[in-house]
């Protein structure tokens, strides 16, 4: 495989901040290193310059359809959540007609793209990875920090490292798929081609991970598909920077259209097209259900059955056994529940803790809570910043106010304050409840709020069993126990309740190539982005049998 890249002129001369290039990656298959951004370092200075630039300049984001850059209107704004009077970018919504035009352009571009050798498409992603690691790294990080409310490290692990990893691992996993060939015999030569799907893919992205925005349209494109990319309204700028770097990496016109748009207008237009081949969605359960229902309503129209891939929400748990390592429960829970304001689909939002050690855990979490700083994303010392927008602020505030009434035996133990005068700030909050069926333990809040149910130690097995089916979700969960017999029993009991399980570790932080990610039940179709089989979801494999000895006999031997 390496020699193929060298033959194609894949050079080492690219400069990246971490020093790891795609050429190195092909030999080592390692994840993109996370930069530290210490004060005064080169990367910190460059990041601060990029933050300064985007803070002072409003960026215009066009629609991209084929070779057109459409900048009419630009009536919509992406604001900075921690300073919501400041505009980061201006953009416009694609109309239904423009989305239809993008479908036509994509269908036109599809045939030549799908016939290109996979290695040539992979090479574009590998070049894109190097651009993301070098020239574009600070643009990606600064736009993600300002637009999506991430602190330095949260932006770096997402917009730089995870994006780069998606590009590189997807490319290599796809090339590895191609190494399989079916058995051929004396009379027939058999082959399997990982053909792209007939039609177009609609890639619908969430706000919370820039890397997911980049992965949803490009993983299908790698496999020979054409994608309509609909970014989230609150991640338009960072997603467009990915579009630009892909263009620089050699992505031809028409393969990806960039279409900020009203969700229902986009959803209705793509599901009414006979040529929809797949939806690659990441976002909330209600939106995915709407899309699925739209597809069902249009089922008689389609040329091919559209594949529906959706990664959705969660109500992720930390289950603590009396033998658990207390510091690790406290640090893991504070990190998982509060970093990025609990806006990771995998964030811990419910904890089951035994009475015997809960006071010690709470003491440690309280110490952490005292040191945590909430503030503007440009302040390098913050742990978390504002939540994404006014709707999120209202939703999370509603849950905190519910807890404040004392319903379900709720008590706000840490945090509980909020203020949206400058930014959508919500303090990291910890609530205890006495009712194990409380909605605070069942519903996804998607904010920096964790709910704890303290159980009697003698009930540990009964509580473990109840966690299994306590919510409709099945995304992530963690068990903390130094008692290995219990740890593995819990792992087996909770097998259907998660797609990613953590033993003695927090429920967030999956890494491409290390923990392929996705959940089941209402958390999604569990296609494991970042894993070796993800590419298969975007192929419509074609099997070809070529016979060298003509078939002339029609009778079976048994007939004689
Ligand atoms: N499981 C995962 O891998 C994963 C990863 C990230 C986020 N998430 C989930 O995503 C959610 C947060 O993201 P969000 O707030 O951006 O989600 P969302 O459902 O509000 O929006 C997701 C996307 O769908 C679009 N949309 C809205 N209505 C639509 C319609 N009718 N048809 C087509 N598209 C439509 C939105 O504009 C946006 O681009 C949380 O529930 C989180 O758990 C899951
Ligand atoms: N891969 C991420 C979650 C993605 C969803 O938001 C994590 O596990 O931290």
Automatic annotation (TrEMBL):
Pathway: Amino-acid degradation; L-proline degradation into L-glutamate; L-glutamate from L-proline: step 2/2. SUPFAM superfamilies: ALDH-like. Its EC number is 1.2.1.88. Residues 78-533 form the Aldehyde dehydrogenase domain. GO terms for biological process: L-proline catabolic process to L-glutamate. Coiled coil: none annotated. GO terms for cellular component: mitochondrial matrix. It catalyses: L-glutamate 5-semialdehyde + NAD(+) + H2O = L-glutamate + NADH + 2 H(+). The keyword Kinase does not apply. InterPro entries: Ald_DH/histidinol_DH (IPR016161), Ald_DH_C (IPR016163), Ald_DH_N (IPR016162), Aldehyde_DH_dom (IPR015590), P5CDH/ALDH4A1 (IPR005931), Proline_metab_enzyme (IPR050485). Keywords: NAD, Oxidoreductase, Proline metabolism. Signal peptide: none annotated. GO terms for molecular function: L-glutamate gamma-semialdehyde dehydrogenase activity. It comes from the Eukaryota. Pfam families: Aldedh. CDD domains: ALDH_F4-17_P5CDH (cd07123). PANTHER family: DELTA-1-PYRROLINE-5-CARBOXYLATE DEHYDROGENASE 1, ISOFORM A-RELATED, DELTA-1-PYRROLINE-5-CARBOXYLATE DEHYDROGENASE 2, ISOFORM A-RELATED. Belongs to the aldehyde dehydrogenase family. This is Multifunctional fusion protein. It comes from Caenorhabditis angaria. The lineage of its organism: Eukaryota, Metazoa, Ecdysozoa, Nematoda, Chromadorea.
């Amino acid at each position: 495989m390496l020699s193929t890249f060298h033959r194609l002129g894949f050079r080492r001369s690219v400069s990246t901040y971490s020093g790891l290039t795609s050429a190195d990656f092909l030999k080592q298959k390692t994840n993109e290193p996370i930069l530290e951004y210490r004060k005064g370092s080169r990367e910190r200075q460059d990041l601060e310059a990029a933050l300064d630039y985007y803070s002072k300049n409003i960026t215009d984001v066009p629609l991209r359809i084929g070779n057109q850059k459409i900048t009419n209107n630009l009536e919509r704004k992406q604001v900075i959540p921690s300073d919501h009077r400041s505009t980061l970018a201006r953009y416009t919504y694609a109309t239904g007609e423009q989305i239809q035009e993008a479908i036509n352009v994509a269908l036109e571009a599809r045939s030549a793209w799908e016939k290109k050798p996979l290695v040539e498409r992979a090479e574009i992603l590998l070049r894109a990875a190097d651009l993301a690691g070098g020239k574009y790294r600070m643009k990606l990080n600064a736009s993600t920090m300002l637009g999506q409310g991430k602190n330095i490290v949260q932006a770096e692990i997402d917009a730089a490292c995870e994006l780069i990893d998606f590009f590189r691992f997807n490319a290599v996993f796809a090339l590895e798929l191609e190494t399989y060939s079916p058995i051929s015999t004396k009379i027939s030569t058999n082959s399997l081609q990982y053909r792209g799907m007939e039609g177009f893919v609609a890639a619908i992205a969430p706000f919370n991970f820039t890397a997911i925005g980049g992965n949803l349209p490009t993983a299908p494109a790698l496999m020979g598909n054409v994608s309509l990319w609909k970014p989230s309204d609150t991640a338009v700028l960072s997603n467009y920077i990915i579009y630009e770097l892909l263009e620089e990496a050699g992505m031809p016109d028409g393969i990806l259209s960039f279409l900020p748009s009203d969700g229902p207008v986009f959803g209705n237009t793509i599901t009414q097209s006979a040529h929809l081949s797949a939806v690659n969605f990441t976002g909330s359960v209600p939106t995915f259900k709407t899309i699925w229902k739209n597809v069902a309503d249009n089922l008689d129209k389609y040329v091919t059955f559209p594949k529906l891939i959706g990664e959705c929400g969660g109500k992720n748990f930390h289950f603590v056994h009396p033998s658990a390592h207390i510091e690790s429960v406290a640090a893991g829970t504070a990190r998982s529940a509060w970093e990025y304001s609990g806006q990771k689909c995998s964030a811990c939002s419910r904890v089951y803790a035994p009475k015997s050690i809960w006071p010690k855990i709470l003491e440690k979490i309280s110490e952490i809570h005292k040191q945590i700083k909430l503030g503007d994303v440009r302040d390098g010392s913050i742990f978390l910043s504002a939540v994404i927008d006014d709707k999120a602020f209202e939703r999370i505030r509603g849950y905190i106010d519910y807890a404040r009434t004392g319903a379900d035996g709720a008590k706000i133990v840490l945090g509980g304050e909020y203020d949206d005068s400058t930014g959508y700030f919500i303090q990291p909050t910890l609530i205890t409840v006495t009712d194990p069926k409380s909605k605070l333990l069942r519903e996804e809040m998607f904010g920096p709020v964790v709910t704890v149910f303290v159980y009697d130690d003698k009930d540990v097995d009964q509580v473990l069993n109840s966690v299994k089916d306590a919510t409709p979700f099945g995304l992530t969960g963690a068990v903390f126990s130094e008692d290995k017999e219990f740890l593995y029993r819990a792992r087996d009991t909770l097998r259907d309740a998660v797609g990613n399980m953590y033993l003695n570790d927090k429920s967030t932080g999956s890494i491409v190539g290390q923990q392929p990610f996705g959940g089941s039940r209402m958390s999604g179709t569990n296609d494991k982005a970042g894993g070796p089989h993800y590419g298969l979801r975007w192929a419509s494999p074609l099997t070809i049998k070529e016979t060298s000895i003509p078939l002339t006999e029609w009778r079976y031997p048994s007939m004689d």
